[in-house]
Amino acid sequence: MEINKPVAIVIILVISLISIFFFALPKYRESRALRLTLDEKLAEYQSKSAYYEKMAETIKTIESNKEAVEKINSALPDNFYFAPLVYFLQKKTSENGLISKSLTFSQSVSSLGRVSAGAVSKEIKNVSFTLNLTGSYKGLKNFLLSLEKSSRLFEVRNISFVSLKSANQLKNQPNQLKNYDFKLEVVTHSY
Fold first, then answer.
1. How far is CA 126 from the centre of its chain?
2. What is the CATH number of domain 76-190?
């Protein structure tokens, strides 16, 4: 039996095309889809790698500036406690030759707005207090400078003072330091 060569060639070509269509083409499409998935995963990996590198650099920067970060945290603390603030104020008044007569606190929510820290949103609170002091003008000046130099944010809203001695007594003792009653309205902030 002789096989017709042109018919055999056509049959072989048809069988080849059918086998390519049913076997090779799906594998090619599958490999192309896998290549696209691989490229997407590589791009995602590179972006995450760059993100984590940047985070590591940021952490190193924060750790190298730890003192500055601690000062910032003390300037605007997460929670507010009266005891450290009262201790600080009493210490600074006595260091500057002033006598603290009274300290009155009032706490109110600020209109400064909300601060978002991650998923938690906190309102900035203004803590205002009135401080009654007795002492010299120089002592008050030094006290205000120490408030200004402290890491905590203080705003002096109002200062009022009156002389303790009458004008006649001041004429008799001109070299003596004048003592005054000072009333300071001060505001500090916290979360």
1. 17
2. 3.30.70.60
